[in-house]
Design brief:
677 residues; Killer Toxin P4, Chain A; 5-stranded antiparallel beta sheet; 38% helix
């Protein structure tokens, strides 16, 4: 199993601070002093180290270990032995052997790092390198250390034409370091000096000159000639980063860097006679920095305490949730799901959503499941995770994807669903190279199934559930091409005696009802509107664009054909004439009914199911759907102000709303997602 290591100050120091300063002081309500001490200690420890754990490059091999080998346990043993050597010496090498495979590893910190910073950098590299597993080789370069493992002894290797890389991305800010020849000349001179000094001084040197700073570091397993050869190639290739402000050579036997940002301390410079003496300017800078640090501590103390109280409450809530799921049998062990997906092997990946990736997994019982792997970078994603678990954990319906359980105690939170083998409806409707064209009967059955699922959510439960994100990419198809509604991360529920919820806008442009988009008023009729748009997409085989364009939106096109009694002209050309024209007109009319501008005029999903399944049920005449104008929209901006003109039921009344949206994308859909809280 890949190791998950904690990155931070040493365990002993952190435990001392927490147990002897923070916790007792809080109990005695003297939290201010404790938080200041804790924040100060962390800032002092991380002042240099934070810049050393910038990941300059991660390279994973493509070869896999031989079958029936214990490669992962061997990797764990390998890293445990390496950690002891790095802790003692700041570098080390190790090897583990079996009858079928051997693994070798090397870790080394760069010469200018202090021991504590070195350990932090190594911990970060050891945490991230297992992403290469189960490949038999991998290497990772940080700005402070290097870590590699491989299935052959590589300790004397200096260069490799295949794996040697140059990273020209900059952490400084502006990529352009200077277009003039002086800058190029200064960088070239610095690189010659620092690599030459490193060969002479045992494989390590740092230099500064004329506004440029450089580092050259060889791995200590190399000979002097191997080190010289690696530096020669690195110095030659890294100049390709010019005129960029920063460049890194990530080579088999060495690491070379230049930057306009000073990334090492004065004490690291060889031959600097003033390295131990502060000049006046340096003294002033240190004093100002200390004043700023004290001010920051004072201002952050209260915020830290508030955050601590909030996190404590969240931990209590999480513990209660964890206990309830353990008791209910919904809880899966993280290790079981990790093995079921072959450690989240990319070949097992079957989809990507806005909150994480979905992998096909096989449980020890042989049952195939879908594992949704969520990476929480915001509180909103955490809320959506528990929202989805709480809402659908006890719900069963043939048209809803069944939640089998979750894992909330590992390094990541995971959701486990029944596996739906035929991907999403979007895959069959809109992909250019369709593996199958859905027949009329299949499309009709899909529409009826989605309607039945939504009807169950709206009126088949004690609390009404509104999905809020009904679209083709959130409808999965099973082995019989029957639909299953998925992704309840945005769903909301409310009691039957409430008329609506006032909530932040969240959903997908083109599927959101106008009253929800403009006023934030949410009812089950918002799902009805989304369903209406989806019905038109399924029948027409054309994606609904959010706004009116020169060719007309899907809603506008179908409405015009309805008004001229030519509805069947909008049917997907892929069907040719293999569909009943009367039934097609009926379904398209129901789609227009559901997509009417006025929420009160839209039918309920119970009525929709009856209209679809009862041949004798009369279909009312629909009114005009809303059309959205884009004359003021900049297509190039990811943050835009939209003005929405909604034409309600053919009237000239215009309702306007302005809001700001942040766009996000999934590999199943390029729709714009709005999340405004």
């Amino acid at each position: 199993m890949p190791l998950q290591l904690r990155i931070g100050v040493s365990n002993q120091l952190q435990e001392f601070l927490l147990m002897n300063c923070l916790v007792p002081s809080l109990r005695r309500r003297r939290w201010m002093i404790a938080v200041v001490i804790f924040v100060a200690a962390r800032m002092l420890l991380f002042s240099v180290a934070e810049s050393t754990i910038y990941e300059a490059g991660l390279f994973c091999g493509k070869s896999l270990p031989p079958p029936n080998t214990t490669f992962i346990p061997m990797f764990v043993t390998l890293m445990e032995g390496l950690s002891q050597r790095v802790t003692a010496n700041g570098s080390g090498q190790n090897a583990v052997h079996s009858s079928k495979v051997s693994i070798y590893t090397l870790a080394q910190c760069y010469g200018y790092l202090r021991h504590n910073d070195c350990l932090q950098c190594y911990a970060a590299s050891r945490t991230r390198l297992p992403r290469c597993l189960p490949s038999v080789s991998g290497r990772i370069y940080f700005d402070g250390c290097f870590l590699r493992y491989d299935n052959h002894s590589f300790f004397k290797e200096s260069v490799d034409s295949v794996t040697d890389k140059v990273n020209c991305s900059s952490t400084v800010g502006d990529e352009a370091g200077g277009m003039d020849s002086d800058f190029r000349k200064n960088v070239g001179e610095l690189l010659r000096n620092v690599t030459t000094s490193a060969v002479v001084n045992g494989g390590y040197a740092v230099r500064e000159g004329k506004g440029v700073f450089g580092l050259a570091q060889c791995w200590n397993t190399l000979t002097k000639e191997g080190c010289r050869a690696c530096f020669a190639k690195a110095r030659r290739e890294i100049t390709g980063c010019l005129p960029g402000r920063e460049g890194r050579a990530l080579y088999t036997g060495c690491y070379v860097r230049y930057s306009t940002l000073k990334f090492f301390s004065n004490q690291s410079l060889e031959g600097n006679s003033n390295s131990g003496v502060f000049r006046r300017g340096e003294l002033i800078a240190v004093v100002l920095a200390m004043i700023a640090f004290v001010m920051l501590c004072l201002f952050s103390s209260y915020a830290a305490f508030r955050r601590w109280k909030k996190q404590k409450q969240e931990r209590n809530n999480l513990g209660q949730i964890s206990y309830s799921y353990n008791k209910s049998g919904l809880n899966f062990k993280y290790e079981v799901l990790e093995k079921a997906t072959n450690y989240f092997n990319p070949e097992r990946k079957v989809g990507q959503g806005g909150a994480g990736s979905v992998y096909r997994g096989t449980l020890p019982s042989g049952k195939t499941v879908a594992v949704k792997r969520l990476f929480f970078s915001t509180r909103q994603w955490v809320d959506e995770f528990f929202n989805e678990v709480n809402l659908i954990s006890g719900i069963e319906h043939k048209s809803l994807v069944k939640l089998l359980g979750c894992s909330i105690e590992g390094p990541e939170s995971l959701l486990v669903y029944e596996f739906v083998p035929n991907k999403s409806l979007e895959h069959y409707l809109f992909e250019k190279n369709k593996v199958k064209v859905l027949s009329w009967k299949e499309r009709y059955n899909i529409i009826v199934g989605i309607a039945e699922g939504l009807s169950f959510l709206h009126e088949g439960l004690e609390l009404r559930i509104i999905h809020r994100d009904i679209k083709s990419s959130n409808v999965l198809l099973d082995e019989n091409l029957d639909p299953k509604i998925a992704d309840f991360g945005l769903a909301r529920c409310f009691a039957a005696d409430k008329t609506h919820l006032s909530t932040g806008i969240a959903g997908t442009l083109g599927y959101m009802a106008p009253e929800y988009l403009i006023k934030g008023q949410l009812t089950e009729k918002a799902d009805v509107y989304s369903f209406g748009v989806l019905v038109l997409e399924i029948i027409c085989g054309r994606k609904s664009n959010a706004f009116v364009e020169e060719s007309g939106s899907l809603l506008q096109t179908v409405w015009k054909l309805y008004k001229t009694n030519k509805l069947t002209e909008s049917v997907d050309p892929c069907l040719a004439d293999a569909y009943p024209a009367k039934e097609a007109s009926k379904v398209l009319t129901i789609g227009l009914l559901c997509a009417q501008a006025s929420a009160t005029q839209r039918p309920s999903m119970v009525d929709v199911v009856q209209m679809l399944t009862d041949e004798n049920r009369k279909i009312p005449e629909p009114n005009q759907p809303p059309f959205l104008n884009t004359s003021s929209i900049s297509a190039c901006s990811t943050r835009s102000s939209y003005s929405l003109n909604s034409l309600m039921s053919g009237q000239a009344t215009k309702a306007q709303a302005s809001y700001t949206s942040t766009e996000s994308f999934s590999n199943q859909s390029s729709d714009d997602h709005l999340r405004m809280k």
